[in-house]
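G.,

No rush on this.
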Amino acid sequence: MSAVSRDIRDQIKQGNFIRKAFEDGLALKKQYGEDKVFDLSLGNPLMEPPLEFHQELQKLVNNPIPGMHRYMLNAGYPEVRAEIAEYMASETGLPFTMNEIVMSVGAGGGMNLALKALLNRGEEVILFAPYFPEFLLYIASHSGVARIVPTDDNFAPDLAALEKAITRRTKVIITNSPNNPSGAVYDENIWSNMGKILRAQESRLGTEIFIVNDEPYRKLIYNGKKCPYVFGFHPRTITVTSHSKDLSIPGERIGYVAINPECNEGGELGTAVGFCNRALGVVNAPALMQRVVSKLQRAHINIEAYQKKRDFLYDHLTAMGYAIAKPSGAFYMFPKSPVDDLEFADELRKQMVLTVPGIAFGTAGYFRIAYCVEDRVLEGSLTGFRAAAQKYGLC
């Protein structure tokens, strides 16, 4: 008999793939030395925050605002939300106000706020595989039911499958562009066709369906690729973002939820999302970080550095015979596995290269590489990748 609930025990087991890779890395580094182990398993940003972040933080430390560490509205400081709304309005051309912005504890916190506000018990949430595995935990936590829809070889959503998957109980479509684990970025055509499908299905079924796009990697885009905002393609749209990746401050846990100003239910929904900070026991997003990031909406880390890492690894791995859809954003790639992905991840581990099998992301037959690491780790991993490729006949 266990004191821990069955649901949590089951969820811990399901989350073992990424955790196991992390724990394996610690054990191997202790046994063989850090310089002999090449850990590509975790999306923990390598870079330090940009200079602007330190400058804004220093300003607040040196010139504290009276009461800046006290409670505030659950949705966040009005002046912070107004500044972010101004940025969103300039980016999208839509009339954002502070009422459509709710500050959150990172994008994960924002996703939970949105799902808590939207879902009734038993309503369905559609995910596109591969997906960030914690989405399943969030859906279950808010009494939703996950339905999985496939993607094509380039990890674009299978829209015909989406159309078939929608039922009267469908309430939310979770999207993730730029995508973790594939690095795929949805273009205007994808968003436009998805919006048409949702509106047609809403009309047919007499329901309302919301898109919630998880986009903490929005600013990590390569080779001039465009990353359209979802708002213009469907009225019932919400984005959740964080500054974990673009400012390289994942430990600060700061982000926000943005609700489409053209959503008829937007006012009520904004109030509900803000209230859910309280309902979930979060109360409010970190006070100090709210004030810092409100001044940094156009700042970001050196994106070219990540692009160089992507190109280095992609060029070397494809030359070895690995099949990879070249990522357009984020800092992951998702190669095909030449054999069962669990077996292949284990083989790479024997070669001191740590990756995560695709089954962790709902897509067996692939494996995820996180290239947000030091160049020496990428360079050192090539020997292990080559040995594994040779063993399984890729080169």
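When you get to it, here's the other one too:
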Amino acid sequence: MDRTFSIGVDLGGTNLRVAAYSLEGEFLQTITLPTRLADGRDCVVSDLCESVSRLRVIHGRTGRLVGIGVGSPGPLELPSGILRNPPNLFGWDGFNLREAIESSLDTEILLENDANLAALAEQVCGAGRTTGASSLCMLTLGTGVGSGLILDGEIWHGISGMGGEAGHIVVDPEGPLCGCGGRGCLEQYASASAMIRMMSEASTPVANAREVADLAKAGDKAAQAVLECVGRALAIALTGAINTLNLPLYVIGGGGSGAWDAFAPNMFQELLSRSYIYRLTAASADRNSAFNANKTRICRAQLGSEAGLLGACLLGLRGTTAETVSAFERKVAS
């Protein structure tokens, strides 16, 4: 019998990843390329479409492709698929990404904000599955800070597809200029890029967030100060989200979450002093405590760097028939 599969695309600022994924919950093949932003958007789209076409041919010989999901940095206007001043894709403002991809592939795609897809994956296969939460907010600490909202198992888009841009919540009105045009956005304090920048400003160059965490653990004062700043900025942003949304689960992922053990204590301490809703509803710190839908739980994401790509693959499967979706959800539940 033909194997049912989808193709997922994770278009990142550093890497472009494309995967074929089976209904049985297995990555069949993954292609990883550098995102050639310096060569222009047409070059990036060409690399993306060539990779999709390659997987479509290889796995189409023995399987049935049911959907292609594509995750892109935002802000992304939906359903049109037009990028609107994306801070981390310079020169892509006004670019109709959907049209460019569909024209090259000669087929329809399912296009979504990349952080929304990471949130979808965490809800279906990660922290949401573990806790039983059907609604969550996810922050992804990467080149920027992305965020996604899942409400009752469905992505929340807002009126134009731009819902959930929590990375541009202002945490310091006098802070650094952000690529979005504002100042002092969460992205300027809590992204992996921000951690690297702040360490450089302290005359201690590092390559990634994990190095910042290692230095902090070893007693480096500059690294400790940077991660205290990260925790405080996240607490300010989460205070707004918790007080406004009152969701049961908030998940923090992306490369910057590798420093979780170093920034989380200050984040939780700040939250207790800033958010009265969190003080009233905070879940037990015991990881083995039973999930309570009336409590607020904040945790590190479970799926690591695969979340965005997995979410794109799941989106491809969700765009199929009800029987296919039902079969997949039964598989996950088991």
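Residues 3-114+306-333 form a domain with the Nucleotidyltransferase; domain 5 fold (CATH 3.30.420.40). The first helix runs from residue 41 to 60.

Enjoy the weekend,
O.
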